[in-house]
Amino acid sequence: MVAATSTAEPMDVDDDNNKNAATDLEADNEVSLRIPITSGTLSSEDSGNNFVEVFPEEFSSLAANKLVQVLRDEAAPIGTWADAGLLYMQQKQARPALVVLEEACDVVVDTTAPSSSLSSSLNKKEADQKKKDQ
């Protein structure tokens, strides 16, 4: 926090003190988590304006599995998952943070894994190749 002075004389302040004061003010301003709403029947005009907002003070009482479900349902970007984990950590909630981050990893794996039809066709080709090699 920056203390104000009541003197009319100009103060000599170096750049390092200004940087520290700015950092302190930024630390005091907590940022909420905004999860864009992608599910449902929103028009394209409204889709960017609707979101679920979770304030930092709510994380201490918010069950991680409920937040994970919302993040999954809304197909939240990976950065939003990471922000959720960070907000849990800032509230000294390590276990819920880990739950969110582990689920985020699962979501990334699910979206990058080959589809089941592609996977089964690859397995069939591998099996055929093994038979030819024998």
Helical percent range? 55-70%
Structural class assignment:
mainly alpha
How confident is the prediction overall: mean pLDDT? 73
Low-confidence stretches: 1-28, 115-122
Distance between the termini: 75 Å
Number of strands: 2
- Write down the overall geometry: elongated
- What fraction strand? 5-15%
Backbone CA Rg: 24 Å
Task: State the major sheet.
Answer: 2 strands, antiparallel
Strand order of the largest sheet: 1-2
Question: What string, H for helix and E for strand, traces the elements in order?
Answer: HEHEHHHH
- Helix tally equals 6
Topology:
Layout: H1 15-28, E1 33-36, H2 44-47, E2 51-54, H3 64-73, H4 78-90, H5 94-112, H6 116-133
Helix pairs in contact: 3-5, 4-5
Structure description:
The chain is mainly α and 134 residues long. It is 58% helix and 6% strand. It contains 6 helices and 2 strands. The chain has helices spanning 15-28, 44-47, 64-73, 78-90, 94-112, 116-133, and strands spanning 33-36, 51-54. The chain has a two-stranded antiparallel sheet. Helix 4 (78-90) packs antiparallel against helix 5 (94-112). The longest helix has 19 residues, at 94-112. It starts with 14 loop residues before the first helix and ends with a helix.
Give a short overview:
This protein is mainly α and 134 residues long. It has six helices and two strands. The model is unreliable at 1-28 and 115-122 (pLDDT under 50).
